[in-house]
Specification:
Blueprint lengths: L1 H32 L19 H29 L3 H23 L2 H26 L3
Helix pairs in contact: 1-2, 1-4, 2-3, 2-4, 3-4
């Protein structure tokens, strides 16, 4: 079973880096170039401090690669327990986007929530399309 996870991760490395790069470019364009708000800084819970734009852009790469790596493991697990892993993958991805997208409007300033939703679409659309193709463990 561990071999299936490692095989999927190895097969998906280039795609994970590509999606991470897309997230970095998207975050940079939205926050540094356009100047949209970033989310609240997690280390300053009691204030209105937001992520610095450059730090948020760099953190977007790390967070995207880490999250997508966990989704590769999730997709591989789906392959082991269902005959339709891609269908369940896409359904759960859409449910996550709807839930997180709604939550971001409650927990963030409106502009930051819009930016986060755009950024999540930049990551989600390629992930939902590309990752199942490279995760096939045969």
């Amino acid at each position: 079973m561990l071999d299936a996870f490692l095989t999927s991760l190895k097969a998906s490395i280039k795609t994970l880096l590509l999606i991470g790069g897309m997230a970095t470019v998207g975050a940079g364009l939205l926050t540094i170039v356009i100047g949209m708000d970033t989310p609240w800084a997690p280390w300053e819970r009691q204030s209105n401090t937001m992520f610095p734009p450059v730090l948020f852009t760099l953190a977007s790469f790390v967070a995207t690669v880490a999250f997508c790596t966990s989704t590769v493991i999730y997709h591989t697990l789906l392959q082991l327990v269902t005959d339709k892993p891609d269908q369940w993958w896409r359904i759960s991805g859409v449910v996550f986007l709807l839930a997180y997208g709604t939550f971001s409007f409650v927990s963030q300033p409106t502009e930051a929530a819009i930016m986060l939703n755009i950024l999540h679409l930049i990551v989600a659309l390629p992930s939902l399309i590309l990752l199942p193709r490279v995760c096939a463990t045969g």
